Amino acid sequence: MIDTQGNLKAGIALPSSEKGKTAGRLFFQTEPLSANILPDTLPGNKPDNSLLGIAMALQQADASRQVTLVSKDINLRIKAHALGIHAEDYTNDKVLDDVDLLYTGKYALAADFLDTHGQKMTSWQEQGRTFYTVTGPTVAQWYPNQFLFGGGEDEFEAIVRDCHGDQATIELVRDFRSPKRNVWGINARNREQNFALNLLTDPEIDFVTLLGAAGTGKTLLTLAVGLAQTLDLQRFSEIIVTRVTVPVGEDIGFLPGTEEEKMTPWMGALVDNLEVLNPTHGGGGEWGRVATADLLHNRIKIRSLNFMRGRTFLNRYLILDEAQNLTSKQMKTLVTRAGPGTKIVCLGNIAQIDTPYLTETTSGLTYVVDRFKHWQHSGHITLQRGERSRLADFATQTL
Q1: What is the pLDDT of residue 340?
Q2: Which CATH code fits 103-172?
Q3: Closest by alpha carbon to 364, among 39, 104, 107, 95?
Q4: Model pTM score
């Protein structure tokens, strides 16, 4: 497009969807600005000041038009407002207008649900599983693999298996809170954790997203299911764990060693949860503990996101931790690495984003939760209650 333009100063015509028309013109700053256009409080040639100077120059050149500065940098927008320049955030990458609108993966049924929908319900059993067909106006608000709970005095918990219009097929969920049904020695401690274990253990669900604050059990539940299905059921050949290497504080610099050795300091959560899940703890002696650690090390691989492009993972259980720090494009790059038999689990807390140019509404984790909610082979649940300790739970609520 630029090659066909004779004069950049006159602007570049932008194409329009309507034939023979243009959507506007793109201009470049081709002339130096006046040195005194900015106030003395903003000296120097900093990029922010240059942008503000261009905006002020355009505003002075044509007072009849409104000049708008678009930036994701909140500090730059504050400076612009202080100088009387209209400034806006870049909103095209926002998934939702408000994070409170984000899909939670569950639906609370009204207390009179059985009274209003019970007459048209039919039920049957298949291979030890109980199914219901539900018809009614409420069904239109449901999504595939969404969890239902409540519905009257005898509350039940179910998952939506199929929904079309005002008719849906639902299945009673398995209760992993029972001591008789655990996963690698782990039981669910609340309703949301039970829903999460149902998603993680379901072979028909290829993509799972778990949101929750610190201590809600995201990593522990995911790793427990991965170990059970990799070592016991032999469904996956190995577990791959990765995460975004964004430091909370100052960067500690370059790390020596191989790819896995470089990633090890970032995998403290993995090591902590493996200590909980190690079955030889308290028994088997030192030899048993070392043998189990070697077995887990051979079946759990730590990989860096920087080397994911071009790879294809076959029959892997892929865990992406701290996924809230990914952009939508990075998330697409990772999810499209999945080959046949691979299951991807994304974990994160959108309230703890460490990347400066991402927000709760633009995070890649928010993006996939919203885009995958209609797909038959994906599931999501937002964990609510912290189970780490009473101290961690209180800190999450008050700090």
Answers
A1: 95
A2: 2.40.240
A3: 95
A4: 0.81
